[in-house]
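Homework help board

Subject: predicted structure for assignment chain

Our instructor gave us this sequence and asked us to write out the predicted structure in token form, then describe one feature. I got the tokens but I'm not sure how to describe them. Can anyone check?
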Amino acid sequence: MDLLANLATGFAVAGTPLNLLYAFVGCLLGTLIGVLPGIGPVATIAMLLPATYALPPESALIMLAGIYYGAQYGGSTTAILVNLPGESSSVVTTLDGYQMARQGRAGPALAAAGLGSFFAGCVGTLLLAGFAAPLSEMAFAFGPAEYCALMVVGLIGAVVLASGSLLKAIAMIIVGLLLGLVGTDVNSGMTRFGMDLPELSDGIGFVAVAMGLFGYAEIITNLAKNETDREVFTAKVQGLLPTREDFRQMMPAVLRGTALGSVLGVLPGGGAVLASFAAYTLEKKIKLKAGEVPLGQGNIRGVASPESANNAGAQTSFIPLLTLGIPPNAVMALMVGAMTIHNIQPGPQVMTVNPELFWGLIVSMWIGNLMLIILNLPMIGVWIKLLTVPYHYMFPAIVLFCAIGVYTTNNATFDIGLVAFFGLAGYVFTKLGCEPAPLLLGFILGPMMEEYLKRALKLARGDWSVFITRPLSAALLAIGVLLLVLVLLPAIKSKRQEAFVED
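My token output:
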């Protein structure tokens, strides 16, 4: 009964004309940035953070959340039609989606992605509504030691779950932690690693790091590619409705992807990218039926399962943010920034102190998923037209808006220089095969972990055994060690990148 009353509160908040408008704007922007290669949800949300100052907190978070899960829908369109993932979680969709487009079956591929995403998004939101309250209650048992241990697990998760080399993922985490140390130490009042620059006394701005690594770096990478190599299947999108056989293959794959994405979205360092990767790997393990096309050659399961998984993962990644105040991925880290702007402390108290915001955000996700189906399938022709716009016309606008967004955060030209620096750094990381997401997570979680570590040691009078004598803290650290051991096993180590290999 409490749940129904809470959902009624949520509908009353999310159903206002203003919040419906911002939910629509968020979904529209999410689809747009998902379709257009060159700027992802991290850079977009980072760019729009200053614009949320003037908005009510409910409207701001509803819009930013819409951008995140909307990008999961939009990313599949580019992946299928251009073989270019508009969003990182759509990388594996290119493997079978693009092959289906080449075979003249772009319509069923887009429908499978859209319908799978809708079902998974609804299930993910249901899970969020059902588990949020009990998890928030459990979160009150967490002390500084437990929070510190949880963040250690988050950082290990980011290493384990990153694609590519383990050593490179660890290196990126360490770089992120070091960047998080820049600024004034709370205890001593001394400036650390400030290089005698007064602009760095408050630390490096999160928006500058996020926008440089993900916005500008992506632009430089795309400019380095030859546009004439892009093959856009605009003329071949006919009949969106999948055949009966397609539905027969799709439905179990959608259910598997949804279940897997719902679990992995909650994990620190996980989210939509990991979910889509894992779902595709699972589909590869399932035995092919008689006459079924192998995965990688245009199998509809290779589209339906990852797309369901990344949407379920996107929705359930809000669970650790709203219940524990811990961002599991880079986008959720930005959501922490948005909440802080509006003087809202992320964590279990959100549900009790701001129930309208909490339940309004959850209900808005249902409404947003319905809007996205309408935006994506009937309007597919509009998005295809956008794909034919030459990139050299688009990127100056993206650069300009990013520069305006970062400048308005602190009204400082120094921040624009930082964005440019991190943009070049992000491009270098891409060339070296280093994933920037672990860096961003380390940058966010590092200072928080340091704070909780100091607090735990002060309460324990410098006794380090507090982390293993407290049961919850010890259990979390044991999970971290287990994750590291598992990933170092040869069988698992060899499978980490399997899904990303184009046969």
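Reply (TA_rk): Your tokens look well-formed. For the description, you could write something like this. The radius of gyration is 22 Å. That's the kind of observation they're looking for.
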